[in-house]
Amino acid sequence: MKKQTRRTFIASAVVLTAGVATGMSLTTMEAKDKKQLAHHVFFWLKNRDSKEDLNKLLEGLRTLRKIETVRSLHIGVPASTELRPVVDASYSASELILFDDVEGQNVYQVHPIHEKFVKEYSHLWEKVIVYDSLDVE
């Protein structure tokens, strides 16, 4: 084994530090290029007063958690918050899914679990509105 001198130790430390710094800057640059995507979907049931249809839709939405690109899934119904002119509580249920980036959402759209969800549950709703947004930070 080669004896390490102070000079070779310092040279190794400089190379290691430069490598770490370069790796960190590449990771930072990659993170700047990838923007998290929020996919918010609102559903209006055909039978708005049917608890059975709502529960069935919620059951279907829960299956979407299994898709590998889904980072976070929030499933909800209108909250009993103060009714104001800017609040739309006319929908029956919603889902909010976070993806790492647009590519993750693209995978989700054609994923067999998502396609099965649409095929098996779309008969329940009369209207769907989707809001997709990219992180600006």
UniProtKB/TrEMBL annotation:
Matching InterPro entries: Dabb, Dimeric_a/b-barrel, TAT_signal
Superkingdom of the organism of origin: Bacteria
SMART domains: Dabb (SM00886)
SUPFAM superfamilies xref list: Dimeric alpha+beta barrel
Domain Stress-response A/B barrel residues, every copy: 37-133
Pfam families: Dabb
Keyword Signal recorded: yes
Signal peptide segment: 1-23
Keywords from the UniProt entry: Signal
UniProt protein name: Dabb family protein
